[in-house]
Amino acid sequence: MADILYTYKHQVYANITNKCDCRCTFCIRSHEDAVGDAETLWHKTDPTLEEITGAMDAFDFTGFDELVYCGYGEPTCALEHLIASAKYARQRYGVRIRVNTNGLANLYHQKDIVPLLSEAVDAVSISLNAPTAEAYDKVTRPQFDGAFDALLQFASRCKEYIPDVRLTIVDVLPPDEIDACQKLADSLGVTLGIRKYA
Predict the structure, then answer these.
(1) Ramachandran angles phi, psi of 11, nearest 5°
(2) pTM for the whole structure
């Protein structure tokens, strides 16, 4: 069975699904079977809620104040398990909950899931990846039309419900594109995070 919880750079992550509605050109899962202390992050079948909470119970959260939903899939593709297990972890272990997401959950589920998500999470980090729809589609290769606009709408909606919302990009973008991404984030009233590409 693949690792459900794993640690990387002093943070603990929850890997609850391998489903994803994008095929990003830079995705680490196309190069490696695991990151951090995980042996593999490839599930033969996605874990059940009981397996996820069982992994939490078996994990020592001492020294960790945040649990990040981020693995070899898009966490919101397993929305019910995400919300239920996040509520469980927050209540039982007192950790802050962050979701790293592609921001396409409303398209994937064909409804506004943000109010539901807000019941279980404290922070959302949304991968913007590019400042325009054309560039975004090229690098992210989403399965939906209109994904870029939907991502921005999702970020705006999250800002209404969730205390900490940020868009993220990697530092390999040229300065003019980083500036354009900053303007997008500013227009939505959210933070822009710039990740170091490794």
Answers:
(1) -130, 155
(2) 0.92
